[in-house]
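Why should sequence recovery work at all? Because a backbone constrains its sequence more than one might expect. Tight turns favour small or flexible residues, buried strands favour hydrophobic ones, and helices have their own preferences. The token representation captures these environments compactly. In the example below, the structure is given first.
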């Protein structure tokens, strides 16, 4: 019975593979090769060298279509140590990228190779590939294995030995013998320079024999330089070639006390302040308090970039309670940078250089620019009170709205408080009490605000004054008390007032008897008489001379005329 099951399973698998197109997917070994690489050309417009005129050619040497899904075309700089992480990814292939057997697949800078199956934008003004040294790698992301590798110049990553760096407008091409790709796992043998580039084609050439893998004898300071090649080749000014020392590298951040266990979390961060890549090889870090050191192997820091080195890598444990001084030296023991960090730093507080000043910051920024955060951030769900500088629970409308209102109530969007649910049916509302009315805004009962309803009733014998809304005594003619002498009753107010005109005296109308005038009433006449006499006396005194002359003249006339 088991034999029958195995037979059915085998038949099913055979039928499946027969019905499925034969496409080889990414694996550690594939019949795909890098066959041509051009790192720069000459512009047909300006006749000047243009490093962006670059392309890479792949070839399927197998008998079946090959899917490039899961593969990535990568670039490695000259000093790259060959790990999984490349310097940069040129293209990551997908299911749609398939190479038919015996055909080519060209990856080109945009606007260069017209029929290229894939084009990419410029990485920089120098393109994706550096001119003098580097490596192009076809990498299997699933298997974490290299499918094919092409190293040129003095690149560390190559097959046995790097090929010669191609000149401008010249490509490095893999040889072919009798229509068969040459692959001796030696880039210097398998590739040759050809002035005539052949995208979508391979030159028919005779492969050279591999060179004797005897290492070159070491060069001592007393040995004369070789006439073929200088000991230190002049760097290309158009390329960011690594510097020969660590000059320009700064210490930018130190984290001695990460939260929790420190092992694997402490780090020292370096910053390349120059415009060229710097190789740290031979430079070393030193803790001055303990005399412990860590010397770098080949390790590049890109221009204007940060790079951290944890305690696991350096084996340098940073003391927190006492603090320490971290220093960076070059291979010649020249001090390049030094910083003394404070003791007793809080958890997850780094000693960082921000805008030229060292500060203790609560913002830890490994591999990136530093940020000064001098006050400990509040926990999640809290905010800092600007008056007390303390963290308080953050109250938002959203958090209040999350609390459900009681049954029969809903949240008022204006006040954010719960209110009774208003329905179309008025029968659901309780009738307000006497003296109350329903508030149309809140739908609640409230006391009727009325000036009349709130007034206290007047006492017996009083009435309300319509003008002042106050109570006053009711006054009638029969009950009116007689007015004093010289006064009369005002019919409008029913009050006594002084008599201003005897002709309009209405005393008889009111039945009030006239009272004779007393001595007190002569005061005005006496006063008027005194004023008149005073005026006459003043006139006699003012005109005394005139009166005397007039009298004298009158008396003279009488004497002359006695009759």
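From this structural description, the recovered sequence reads:
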């Amino acid at each position: 019975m088991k034999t029958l099951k195995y037979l059915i399973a085998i038949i099913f698998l055979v039928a499946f593979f027969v019905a499925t197109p034969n496409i080889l997917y990414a694996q550690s070994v594939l019949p795909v090769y890098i066959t041509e690489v051009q790192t720069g050309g000459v512009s047909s417009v300006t006749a000047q060298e243009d490093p962006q005129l670059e392309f890479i050619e792949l070839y399927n040497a197998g008998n079946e279509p090959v899917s490039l899904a899961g593969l990535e075309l990568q670039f490695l700089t000259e000093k790259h140590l060959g790990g999984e992480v490349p310097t940069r990814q040129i293209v990551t292939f997908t299911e749609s990228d398939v190479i038919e057997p015996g055909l080519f697949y060209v990856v080109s800078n945009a606007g260069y190779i017209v029929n290229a199956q894939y084009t990419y934008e410029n990485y920089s003004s120098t393109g994706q590939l550096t001119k003098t040294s580097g490596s192009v790698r076809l990498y299997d992301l699933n298997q974490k294995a290299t499918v094919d590798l092409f190293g040129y110049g003095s690149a560390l990553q190559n097959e046995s030995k790097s090929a010669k760096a191609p000149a401008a407008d010249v490509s490095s091409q893999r040889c072919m013998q009798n229509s068969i790709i040459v692959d001796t796992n030696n880039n210097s043998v398998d590739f040759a320079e050809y002035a005539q580039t052949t995208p979508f084609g391979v030159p028919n050439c005779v492969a050279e024999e591999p060179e004797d893998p005897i290492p070159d004898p070491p060069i001592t300071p007393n040995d004369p330089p070789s006439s073929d090649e200088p000991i230190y080749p002049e760097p290309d000014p158009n390329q960011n070639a690594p510097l020969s020392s660590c000059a320009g590298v700064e210490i930018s951040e130190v984290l001695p006390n990460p939260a929790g266990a420190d092992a694997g979390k402490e780090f020292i961060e370096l910053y390349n302040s120059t415009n060229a890549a710097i190789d740290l090889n031979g430079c070393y870090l030193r803790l001055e308090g303990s005399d412990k050191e860590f010397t770098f192997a080949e390790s590049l820091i890109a221009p204007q970039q940060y790079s951290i080195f944890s305690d696991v890598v350096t084996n340098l444990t940073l003391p927190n309670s006492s603090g320490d001084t971290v220093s960076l030296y070059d291979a010649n023991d020249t001090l390049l940078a030094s910083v003394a960090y404070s003791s007793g730093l809080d958890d997850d507080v780094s000693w960082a250089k921000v805008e030229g000043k060292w500060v203790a910051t609560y913002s830890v920024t490994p591999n990136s620019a530093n940020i000064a955060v001098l006050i400990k951030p509040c926990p999640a769900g809290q905010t800092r009170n600007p008056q007390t500088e303390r963290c308080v629970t953050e109250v938002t409308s959203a958090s209040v709205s999350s609390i459900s209102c009681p049954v029969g109530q809903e949240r008022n969007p204006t006040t954010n408080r719960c209110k009774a649910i208003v329905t179309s049916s008025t029968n659901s509302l309780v009738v307000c009490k006497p003296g109350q009315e329903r508030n149309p805004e809140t739908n609640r009962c409230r006391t009727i605000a009325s000036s009349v309803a709130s007034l206290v009733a007047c006492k017996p014998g009083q009435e309300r004054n319509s003008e002042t809304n106050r109570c006053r005594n009711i006054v009638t003619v029969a009950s009116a008390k007689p007015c004093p002498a010289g006064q009369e009753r005002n019919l409008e107010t029913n009050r006594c007032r002084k008599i201003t005109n005897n002709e309009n005296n209405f005393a008889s109308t009111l039945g009030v008897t006239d009272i004779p005038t007393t001595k007190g009433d002569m005061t005005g006449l006496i006063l008027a008489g005194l004023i008149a006499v005073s005026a006459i006396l003043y006139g006699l005194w003012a005109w005394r001379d005139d009166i005397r002359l007039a009298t004298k003249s009158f008396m003279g006339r009488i004497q002359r005329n006695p009759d």
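A few observations help interpret the result. The first strand starts at residue 32 and ends at 38.
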